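thought: user wants a sequence for this fold. calling inverse folding tool.
action: design(structure=
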């Protein structure tokens, strides 16, 4: 994870970069398949269909690569912005209660979770652990210092925003 500071995007570079590059390579493979299909011999309708499907899959992979590359968290006097794969959420500083390390339901990976004063919670997927799919208890314990640092930054920014 890169340095935690106000007004800057905070992300786990290793996971974000690895997934984005992998999806970009996958997109290039789909484009190659589309070109090969369109240039090959055979029924024109089948070639066209295969080429269009390959290009659609390439576009989806490019979109996912871009989404993975942009995942992260920013804490500023304007509030907290959490960019996940499918959704960006903006939360005012007054709504934020604090970060806790958890395995959020449906997220699959241990990551910091911002709990809100109304009882809702928002996972920060861009800070998820990149370890193997087991030993989640150890991974959650490993996120405690990260959450402590994020809570310190949240408190510091909230104090300066109200001052």
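)
observation: tool returned 163 residues.
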């Amino acid at each position: 994870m890169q340095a935690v500071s106000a007004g800057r995007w905070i992300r786990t570079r290793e996971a974000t970069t690895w997934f984005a590059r992998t999806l970009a390579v996958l997109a290039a493979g789909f484009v190659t398949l589309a070109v090969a299909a369109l240039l090959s011999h055979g029924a024109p309708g089948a070639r066209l269909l295969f080429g269009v499907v390959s290009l659609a899959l390439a576009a989806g992979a490019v979109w996912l690569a871009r989404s993975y590359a942009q995942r992260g968290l920013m804490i500023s006097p304007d509030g907290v912005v959490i960019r996940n794969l499918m959704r960006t959420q903006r939360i005012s500083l007054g709504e934020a209660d604090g970060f806790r390390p958890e395995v959020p339901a449906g997220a699959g990976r241990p990551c910091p979770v911002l709990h809100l004063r109304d009882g809702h919670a928002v996972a920060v997927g861009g800070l998820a652990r990149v370890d193997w799919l087991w030993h989640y208890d150890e991974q959650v314990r490993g996120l405690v210092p990260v959450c402590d640092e994020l809570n310190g930054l949240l408190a510091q920014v909230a104090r300066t925003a109200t001052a």
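thought: summarizing for user.
answer: Here is the designed sequence. The chain has two domains: 13-69, 71-162.
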